[in-house]
Amino acid sequence: MRKTLWISIYLFLFSLQAYAQRPGQQFDRQKLEDAKIAFISTRLDLSPEQAQKFWPLYNQYSNQREANLRKLAELNPRREANSISDSQAKDMIAKRFAVQRQMIDDEEKFVKEVASVISYEQILKLNGISRDFTRMLYQRQRGRVQQ
């Protein structure tokens, strides 16, 4: 009886903690997305008309890129690398190359589509600006952890 009571209390507290974090994650995700839009728009010096046309294209490209990066991560063997046969490894490598080719094709398509909205100079800067935003997030997070 005592053991059941302690398990119930533990599960109740754990569920409260998990539930309490969900709304914050949704808010943070939206806040992060808004910050990214503001950061990139400012750095690229997008006009309101450009931004209105640019962001749907960028978001679609970004979603495709993230999906392909997830596929690549799934194709990276971790612990089971010793138990993979040579033919399985060859298949995994071929699949990785196919995903990487798809990523290049998606990027070429994105550049062609977005070139009608922003200049090629802005397109060239975009990748660096995206990395700058990610770097800024890591630095801020590292500062919070150290405090």
UniProtKB/TrEMBL annotation:
One of its GO terms (cellular component) is periplasmic space. Residues 1-20 form the signal peptide. Keywords: Signal. The keyword Membrane does not apply. Pfam families: LTXXQ (PF07813). It comes from the Bacteria. This is LTXXQ motif family protein. The lineage of its organism: Bacteria, Pseudomonadati, Bacteroidota, Cytophagia, Cytophagales.
